[in-house]
Amino acid sequence: MIRAKLVAKEIKTQRCSLKRISLAFGFVLVLVIFPFVAKAQELENTILKSSNPYNFPVFPKELLSRFENHSRQKGNLNNQIDPLLNQDWGLADIGFFDSFTPLIQPVQGQVLQCLNQIVVAVIDTGIDYTHPELKNNIWANVGEVGPWTAKNINSSTCRDKSCNGIDDDGNGFIDDVAGWDFVNNQPLPYDTHGHGTHIAGIIAAEGANGIGTTGVCPTVSIMPLKYYDSGSNGMNNLQNTVKAIQYAVRMGAHIINYSGGGAESASAERAAIEEANRKGVLFVAAAGNDGHNNSISPYYPASYPLDNIIGVASINHKNQLLSSSNFGTPVHIAAPGLGILSTIPSGKFGTMSGTSQATAFVTGAAALLFSQIKNRSSVDYRQVKEWILEGAKPLPLNESRSLVSSGLLSIPGSLAQSIKSSLITQKKTSTPTVALVPVGKSKKRFQE
Ligand SMILES: [Ca+2]
Ligand SMILES: [Ca+2]
Ligand SMILES: [Ca+2]
Q1: Cβ pair 160, 148 in contact under 8 A
Q2: How close is the Cα of 59 to the center of ligand 3, in Å?
Q3: What is the number of the ligand closest to the CA of 165?
Q4: What is the pTM of this model?
Q5: Per residue in 111-127, pLDDT tens?
Q6: How far is the CA of 181 from the centre of ligand 1 (A)?
Q7: Rg for the chain (alpha carbons), in Å?
Q8: How far does Cα 348 stand from its chain's mean position?
Q9: Which ligand minimizes its atom distance to the CA of 179?
Q10: CA of 19 to the centre of ligand 1 (A)
Q11: What is the C-alpha separation between 229 and 206, in angstroms, rounded?
């Protein structure tokens, strides 16, 4: 109750309306750019509706069977080219193809892998967990899976903890088998907006499966946490944000990706991120899409002075800051954020723009770096944040504005930092080799 009171107190400010405007602005960008979607590949994806009152899809059968087996076997690449990869200028810009991909022959004789044990909480509009690029990378709450039999065997058709209406792991959430929908307070965090699915794809779209594109860390686990709904008011969005952060920390996320925010701080939100800090959880946050200097006009949560936060600005394909992107020294790093191709609900692909997309690139890079650490129990986010910031590339100097405190996200740069540390595992192994169409030679050049 104290938490609700604290949150309510903060709501007296303009924070909440700003928070809504910020995300609404992102949605406008989506609408403007959505004609590109017509060029994108569409996939058949039959969605089975469950019996929940919101008519959200049930979890895919493959997902549930994987849960039941308690097996997280992933990374079995079927070695097919992802057909939209050459449209993904953001991956090329951050040097993804130079140093890490399960798809191409390693440049430096070593192959880096993303681990499904690394969990990234995506606190957003939900995720289309049925999307063929994402369904194999959805986090599993092992405390809510496994055989279950009702005392009266005829009283229920459910035979699994995921559907028994019981909070089997005692975390306060019933049947939260794959995250939680804080908007509707139920266990199917489905995305009816599109934003969260897009973010999840940038981080973890499955690689080398012959579909769409690939995420920066294509086998990492994504924990879907739905906090935002365009029909909800700002107070609810903020309260749901706090609950989602607390859930992510409690359930063992290593990284939290958050694209929302506003001009006013909220003590409950800050406290939740401080708790994440104490637990060693990295919090990657969008710098905001207002085009202002965060040194003068802070944007929260990105601007809380907590050392587990990485604030992210957005750039175009010329490495110039977007006019819509917030900037200034409280912002740590910049990443691609214009016309970014990724997954959208119902098995589709499309482009979206903003600091949200840039944030997801940094989160993917953090997941990649976490995956390389030999002994994660002795290393936390501080090391990963240091590698990312110290490995950044310089941004163009002709900008009149003070940009960000480090520079542009660079996968090779951050990996070079990590290798120096001797905390990572370097592997030499033979790997699948697939010829890619170099991004620079693609006829489908990105157009601003
Ligand atoms: Ca539970
Ligand atoms: Ca249950
Ligand atoms: Ca793919």
Answers
A1: yes
A2: 20
A3: 2
A4: 0.84
A5: 457 888 999 999 999 99
A6: 13
A7: 21
A8: 17
A9: 1
A10: 29
A11: 26
